[in-house]
Amino acid sequence: xxxxxxxxxxxxxxxxxxxxxxxxxxxxxxxxxxxxxxxxxxxxxxxxxxxxxxxxxxxxxxxxxxxxxxxxxxxxxxxxxxxxxxxxxxxxxxxxxxxxxxxxxxxxxxxxx
Length: 113
What we know:
Belongs to the perilipin family. Keywords: Lipid droplet. It is found in: Lipid droplet. The protein starts with a helix and ends with a helix. The protein has 2 domains: about 1-80, no CATH class; about 85-110. By secondary structure, the chain is an all-alpha fold. The chain is about 90% helix and about 0% strand.
């Protein structure tokens, strides 16, 4: 999970969502109160679940560790094959706009000629 979270694409997308969430909460007081209540509920459930799940996780630790190592190797290979994962969202959007603009310009030139 931490390896996925550290991918540039994922971390920049999370930053964008977090910024939008915070901005929305600040701009709309009614949404803020709903979000605050939801956050408290999620925190309470997470804390309650963590204490119940811990004994199970301790028992499954060797299996979780092996699965984690396997997933890590798969993510490394995925990162090699998809360099897009190493770019921030802003750059991907910019590159896509540039590509679409270029294709539209080419199409206009083809039609006009």
